[in-house]
Amino acid sequence: MSARFDNLHDWLGWQETLHPEEIELGLTRIMAVFQRLHARSFSCPVITIAGTNGKGSSLRMLESIYLADGYRTCAYSSPHLLRYNERIRINSVEATDAEIVAAFTRIDAARADVSLTYFEFGTLAALDIFMHQQVDVVLLEVGLGGRLDAVNIIDADIALLTAISLDHTAWLGEDREAIGYEKAGIMRPGRPAVCSDPDLPRSMQEQANKLNCPLYRLGHDFDFKIDPQGWGWHEKQGQALDLPHPGLSGSHQYRNAAGVLMALTLLQSRLPVAHEAICRGLLEAQLPGRFQLVPDQARSDPSSAPVSWIYDVAHNPDSVQQLAQMLAEAEPVGRTFALLGMLADKDCRTVLRHIHLQITDWHIAPLASSRSEKPENLKDIINSLGCSPVSVHVSVAEAWNAIESQLESGDRIVVFGSFYTVSEAMVVAQAHGQRI
């Protein structure tokens, strides 16, 4: 079988031009190609995770816990921050360029004249690579929605649904009920689903009822309680666990962790996990770009207050509200700079209204995407909220450099608004010697 390209960079560049639409929801095309590649699906348990916020964190916790107990894991997530390979992990190790190129070559041969989007190609590559592994559990993160997302060609043994809020409304609907219906599309008849959002959309319960799908809800079928020493989790059947605080920062991570523990419990008969592994997995789970605190090594004088960079991919109202709360709780010594870039299809005004009180100095830049919001529009919103100073730059790199030149003892910088913003800023930071 001859390969169209011999390196990952060229494959990805070509995939971006292959399909007429960047996003085209639907399962017909990708299902046809998968069935040409593999006659059957996975024989091990599959957990599929959908939701507006908390998908990536929940997946990382599951991955970390199962690995702590010695299980072999495969995990697929998106988007990536620095390397495409981040999306496809086996035992938490990124797939190599050679593995991904080989998968792309097999997919290209199998698809014949079927057109695939960039995301569909990547999803098929992950599934194809995983099918060639001896694996105990497969963890799949939905990219967009659920019902029509490429990941949904695989039947989940457990559907894990995280926080539901407004995002991608052009594709998923204008309210939580419509969005909840799309997310609930990963449920399967008779198979359990878990929801870690305490405010369950009615549409999700209705879908579970229609499919005769046991639905385990936070606040009803399982719950948690936080105390200074740690936190406790319990489910209505009587099981209770005392646990250390999660390694991932933020009060919302307890909700994510609670849903993860319910999913683990439902799979205990097939994949038993010891309490020690749960504790260690929760402590060790890390996810780049989620309130990721990076000290400025160039300003490490112990006699002065440290300067720190905070990278967070928060880009919708709920996630930015959580970010604002965490910034408020941290009580900075100096100024708080924002390095902001957003996509035009986001609710920029609501996002900025949630966080503007935590920012003293704004630096805005366009993103390397055709969907980037114009910095001037973001500046107008920020000015309407009574904020200043606001600086507009031609690139994230220029914004990063402008902020870096102004920093003083005790200052902090929060990079947020999009995966693109964080990704581009991290590249600049690494070029300046920052260890991400």
Q: Can you give a write-up of this model?
A:
The protein has helices spanning 8-18, 28-37, 55-68, 97-111, 118-131, 169-172, 176-183, 202-210, 252-266, 275-284, 317-330, 348-355, 375-384, 396-406, 419-431; strands at 46-50, 73-76, 88-90, 93-94, 137-141, 158-161, 193-195, 215-217, 222-227, 230-235, 240-243, 292-295, 308-311, 336-340, 361-364, 390-392, 412-416. It has 436 residues and is an alpha/beta fold. It has 2 domains: 8-284, UDP-N-acetylmuramoyl-L-alanine:D-glutamate ligase (3-Layer(aba) Sandwich), CATH 3.40.1190.10; 292-431, Alpha-Beta Complex (Protein-Tyrosine Phosphatase, Chain A), CATH 3.90.190.20. The protein has an 8-stranded mixed sheet, with helices on both faces. Helix 3 crosses helix 9 and helix 3 (55-68) crosses helix 10. The chain is globular. The chain starts with 7 loop residues before the first helix and ends in a 5-residue tail after the last helix. The model has no long low-confidence stretch (mean pLDDT 93).
The overall number of domains is 2
Rg value? 22 Å
The assigned structural class equals: alpha/beta
Shape: globular
- Identify low-pLDDT runs: none
| Number of H- or I-type helical stretches | 15
Distance between the termini: 39 Å
CATH topology of the largest domain: UDP-N-acetylmuramoyl-L-alanine:D-glutamate ligase
Percent helix range: 25-40%
Please summarize the sheet with the most strands: 8 strands, mixed
Beta-strand content: 15-25%
Number of strands: 17
CATH architecture of the largest domain: 3-Layer(aba) Sandwich
Looking across the biggest beta sheet, what order are the strands in?
Answer: 4-3-2-5-1-6-7-8
Q: From the structure provided, what is the oligomeric state, counting identical versus distinct chains?
A: single chain
Fourth-tier CATH superfamily name of the largest domain = Mur-like, catalytic domain
Mean pLDDT, rounded to whole units?
93
CATH class assignment of the largest domain? Alpha Beta
